[in-house]
Structures are given as structure tokens and as C-alpha cells.
Amino acid sequence: QVQLVESGGGLVQAGGSLRLSCAASGLTFKNYAMGWFRQAPGKEREFVARISRSAGITDYLESVKGRFTISTDNAKNTVNLQMNSLKPEDTAVYYCAAHSSWFPSRADRVYEYWGQGTQVTVSS
Question: Region 12-20: what's the mean pLDDT?
């Protein structure tokens, strides 16, 4: 049974930082590409960042480039999202997702497994 469990969310002031982690179990982690998505109230879920199976390629939503960094730790079966210079518009529930291809698209519908989400709230 595959499980993805996010942690690290919380309340932070604008300009602050948070580090999200997603622990994966029930799958061979190194064989999966990973992604982070978010969903703000009243909005559709959107792509935030993705990292290839080899961790050699990353891709970011334009509005988070230079502020967010996605990384993986194969020894711990985790994918992390370091979020710096947070803005109120970053407020959302953040989800991690896994896909067994080398580098899936940004479309959330292609991802096979999802975590339950962690709330990030940025106050102004």
C-alpha cells in the first residue's frame, strides 16, 4: 500500500520560510518522479514543482521560481520543498504526488499517488 505523508506546514509571516517534507512508503522511491501541487480556497489545484526520477531535472511554477526548491532524499524516501520569501498568495493546502515515469508533465491528472495535504498559511 503506497502512502505519501506531508509535514511541515504551518502559519508564517510574509517573507518567512517553511520546509515541507513528504515521506513515501510502499513504493520503490528511486523509481518515481515527484511533484508538489497546491490548492487555495475556491481555486483549482495547481502545479508548483516537480523533480525527475533521477533528481537531475527540476521544474517550477513561474511565480515560485527563485523562492522554492524541490529536492529528494532517496535514503529517507522523502521529497522536500523549501519555501523562502513566502507571500500571502502562497497560502494553500500543499500536496505531494508520485508518478512512475521518469519526468511526468505538470498535469495533476497523470500522477498516480497523492498525499493528504498540509496547510500553509502566509499572513501579511
Answer: 98
